[in-house]
Every structure is written in structure tokens, then in C-alpha cells.
Amino acid sequence: MVAAKGIVQITPLQSLVCTPFIGCRHCSFVQDFFITRLQQPIQYNIMILRKTIRITALMAGMLFFLTAAAQSRQKTASVHKIEALPRDVEIKLALSALPPYLRDSATVYVLNPDSGFEVARKGTNGFHTFVSRNGDDAMRGSWQLKEYRDDILYPISFDEAGAKNIMPVFFDIAKMQANGTNPDELKKIIQDRYKTKYYRAPERAGVSYMLSPILRTYTNPDADDNVVTASVPHVMYYAPNVTNEEFGGGKPAPGATYSFVILPGPHGYSIQFLGKTESEAVRKENKELLEQLCKINKEWCLPAVVEEQTSHAHHH
Fold first, then answer.
1. Whole-model pTM?
2. Which of 14, 69, 189, 313 has a CA-to-CA distance to 284 between 20 and 30 Å?
3. Where are the domains positioned within the chain?
4. What's phi and psi for 61, nearest 5 deg?
5. How confident is the model at residue 58 (pLDDT cuts 50, 70, 90)?
């Protein structure tokens, strides 16, 4: 249609855009704006949409990365790896758990903080020995295992029966800790395995020697997470699924005269301490080893050593 002279022809699109703004002196501006938008090619709008999607995806990815990094830092704070002992010290300490006549032919393990226990020396007499840095006692009780302690230390050995049925608990714990399992989750896993009889009692009577001159572990893990450093060389006999009362045991206490049951359950033990004279002989034999451990970690200094060092410092 040809417009009459002096009359501006308004297209249907212009009418649609401008009608709501009749009487508005800025109508031409608004008209131009909307018409420009409506006339933009579809491809342009698709391009803008794709850019928007890419930017949104990038922001979501960055948010996920930052969240994961924060969770990783939090996890690392509670799941730190234990620092390995000097290899020669660890082997000597592990062997100290055994009677002298069993040491030369025993299998010895050392802890690799990145993977768990490894064989340091293959033995032939059926006895196995290692230094536990986070053992089965930490899996006892209802208290929460909030973090992996770096001061737990107790040399322990097993005969063939114990190596088959009890030792795997220690090795599973070490491996899961090395793999970054959360402490409380690890404790739940181990406790569930006991409930489902994944871990079973030894198949015969047997013995676990703990004759080393020092240990640092939990005093009563069924009740709480209190730990102590002590020198209490002892021998443990397997006493599965029997209570101290049923066993007729004495009052549980470090260095007690009479034997008693600890860790009641499939992996329970009857414990018998060495006498005062025998225990003193063990400490004398391992004097140099005790001094080395005390230098590595002050928590591994026996109380008498601490008192002696303090007294010596005061005199200077």
C-alpha cells in the first residue's frame, strides 16, 4: 500500500510495538529498540544461548572444584599419614616383642604409610612380628575415633594361628588408613566386620608375645580413648569369647600379679605380665633402643627417663 502524502505509513510490526506507547514522546526510541531485537537473526539468538550455557557450565565446574578442594583439605586434616619410624629402629623394636630364641627366624613387617605393612624379612618359624601404630584396640568402644594419632606404638607378635585370624585386622586398618579412609568410618567398618563374623577367633590355642620394653596405647579402649606410655612386658594367650569373670581373672591393671582377660570377644586375650626382675632385664637389654625412641617422640619416653632428663637439666 502506498502512503498518502504527508501521512507516515506504519507497518503492522511498528503498530504492535508502538501502540502501547501512544502519546509517549519516546515512542520512536522504544520502537526502534524492540524492532531491532525482534528482527535479529535466529542464529544470533542461538549463539547467545550457547555462550550463556557455556558460561553457566564453567561456573558450575569452578564451584564443584572449589567445594571438592575444601572437602579434601578437611579430610586431609583428620586423615593424615603416620610418619614412618627409621627402618632399623622399627625392625629392632618389632623383634623385641619376641623371646630371643624366636627372633632370628621370625617374619618381620614394617609400615609403609602410603600402602600399609610390608614384609621386611621373611621368616621360617611361623611367628610374625611388627609395630602397630593404630591397632585393634582403637576399634573398641562407642567413642568416636576423630583422628589418627601419631603417637600410638606397640610391638606385637603372633604365632601361625594368630597370624591367620587376628593379624589381618591390624593390616586392614593400616591399609585403609593409608588409602585415606576417614577415622570414624574406618572404626565403623571394623566393628561391622566383627559383628558379621568376617573376623573370626583363632582356630586353636596360641600365643601373642608383647615382650618389648615400651608401648603406648589405650588404657581401657572399651570405655574411652585415654592413652599411656608404659613398660609392661607381657605374654597374651588367646581367650576367645570369654569374660574376665568367666575366666576367673584378677583385677585388670598394668603389671598385675594375676592374669586377666582383655578385649573380650573373638580376639580376646588372657594377659600375663613378666615379673619385676624380668621386666627390668628387658629394659636394660633395650636401653639404646629406648633412648632412640625418646629422641624421636617425647611421648615415647618412659616416665623414669623423663624424670631423669628433667633432673639432669635442672643440675645444669
1. 0.73
2. 313
3. 87-314
4. -65, -40
5. low
